Amino acid sequence: MAAAEGARKKVIIDTDPGIDDAMAIFVALRSPELQVLGLTTTFGNVHTALATRNALHLLEAVGRTDIPVAEGSHVTVKKASKLRIASFVHGSDGLGNQDFPAPTTKPVDQTAAAFLVEQANLYPGQVTVVALGPLTNLALKIGQIIILGGAYSVNGNVNPAAEANIFGDPDAADIVFTCGADILAIGLNVTHQVVLTDTDREKLEQCDSKYARYLCKIMGIYYDYHKDAYLIKGVYLHDPTTLISAVNPSLMTYTEGVVRLWSLDCVYNGGFSLMYWFCRYGEITAWTGMLTVKVAVTVDAPAVVELMMQRLMTDD
């Protein structure tokens, strides 16, 4: 049974689709706890223009063209335009090299930043942004920002120090992490515990849900990447885990501290996210006086996978 409209958490998904973005978006659409106000797009897995095309296409594929899409920045906050794109993970089109036809719908006539500000003003303190890509669009205070970003005690997935979304625009990430908003960060230390196995994939392939059928069509390259890069028979559920933290935060535990980022200027640690737990230092540092954020440290991985599977395996 759907939740009452007023009780549903209002979310905007800032996204760079991306196969696991597609999973997360579908889980959001299938979650009665959430009211998806819109999708905003950014660069990351693909360039921003393609992210917008993919977002529109995903909504068309499941009959949800009532949800607006607003296109975001094509460059970092420091105007860098030479961006890292993960075509080797998601395919050159971001959706498994399926060569889907162009969407017939169009994005709204607003930038992502303008759309975010508008929705924050319409629903003061009620909007949660689930940020699944680099954080360039997010430099404002709203209800909550849930970020897929950082590694926090494990190796990154771009270099040993950095996770891809933070690496994509570390200067934007530093602005967001220190802006004073209510922030929850979901890092690789958590998402690498949540795996969609080959057995789970077979279950999706055997059901009649339009969501599952679509995802099974695009996931091949994503599974191949994980087999080659991580030697696992399955895929990490980065974006769906982040989205599910908005649906049921109790599936994770959290610590709290100040998070700062190294910029790309640092050759070895570019995009490195470092958390400060308030040791007593004699000197004033770049962390002194900064407001804290929450960072996920543990996850009930089987429960996250089960919830995702439940949401994707039916259309009702």
Automatic annotation (TrEMBL):
UniProt-listed Enzyme Commission number(s): 3.2.2.3
This protein's GO CC annotations: cytosol
Main location: cytoplasm
Keywords attached to this entry: Cytoplasm, Glycosidase, Hydrolase
GO biological process terms, semicolon-separated: purine nucleoside catabolic process; ribonucleoside catabolic process
Keyword Transmembrane: no
Subcellular location per the Swiss-Prot or TrEMBL entry: Cytoplasm
Reactions catalysed: uridine + H2O = D-ribose + uracil
Keyword Hydrolase: yes
CDD domains: nuc_hydro_CaPnhB (cd02650)
Pfam families reported in the protein's UniProt record: IU_nuc_hydro
Domain Inosine/uridine-preferring nucleoside hydrolase: 11-305
A GO term, aspect molecular function: uridine nucleosidase activity
Function according to Swiss-Prot or TrEMBL: Involved in pyrimidine breakdown.
Recorded family membership: Belongs to the IUNH family.
Protein name, UniProt field: uridine nucleosidase
Species the sequence originates in: Panicum miliaceum (Proso millet)
